[in-house]
Specification:
Distance between the termini: 54 Å
Strand content: 5-15%
Structural class: alpha+beta
Radius of gyration: 27 Å
Largest sheet: 3 strands, antiparallel
Mean pLDDT: 77
Shape: elongated
């Protein structure tokens, strides 16, 4: 009597949630550029029976984890993950387990950061100065922008920028804002 061939659905059902949890943890370790233990996938290999299945499943889970990591923590829900993952053949139970692992990772990472943040701008003042002459030249007539920034922690920063450098900064900021707008239009970042 020939052994019964199992369907893909039956294969997926027999994979425990613990396998997905282990694979997601390995993927997060890899994405953090930490060293992954040599025998990290051995337990999964023992359950699945072949390296080919193990590596295919790991590849799908890795792709799913990398998509989940890019989604902000408040939006990390099953429907957003399904949009991000797209055509991958990862079951809903697996996605739930992956979401749980990524949420745990993100909450631990945010706790580790604590209250380390950049100071916010409390006050911003500017003016245009025109240099009429200098000790070297009798007549210069060169405009410069003078900026004074007061930070929320009380520090004051004063800096001077030429008109040409100001236009270069203005162009760079406009390009960055346009790129942010393009990213907001993509499905992955929509709320």
């Amino acid at each position: 009597m020939l052994p019964k061939k199992s369907s893909k659905k039956e294969d997926e059902d027999c994979i425990s949630r613990n396998v997905y949890k282990n694979l997601a943890e390995v993927a997060i370790t890899y994405l953090n550029e930490e060293s992954v233990p040599d025998k990290a996938l051995d337990a999964v290999h023992m359950q699945l029976g072949s390296y080919e299945k193990t590596y295919k499943l790991y590849l799908n889970v890795h792709h799913c984890v990398s998509a989940c990591v890019r989604i902000p923590l408040p939006l990390l829900k099953l429907d957003h993950v399904q949009e991000a993952v797209g055509d991958l053949k990862v079951s809903e139970d697996a996605q739930k387990e992956i979401i749980a692992v990524v949420q745990t990772y993100k909450s631990k990472a945010s706790e580790a950061k604590g209250n380390n943040f950049y100071p916010k701008i409390k006050r911003f003042r500017w003016r245009i100065d025109i240099t009429i002459s200098s000790s070297v030249l009798a007549r210069v007539l060169e405009p410069t922008l003078l900026f004074e920034v007061t930070l929320c922690d009380g520090r004051k920063k004063v800096f001077e920028v030429s008109i040409a450098k100001f236009h270069q900064i203005r162009y760079s900021v406009a390009a960055a804002l346009k790129e942010i707008e393009n990213l907001k239009k993509k499905k992955l970042l929509k709320t």
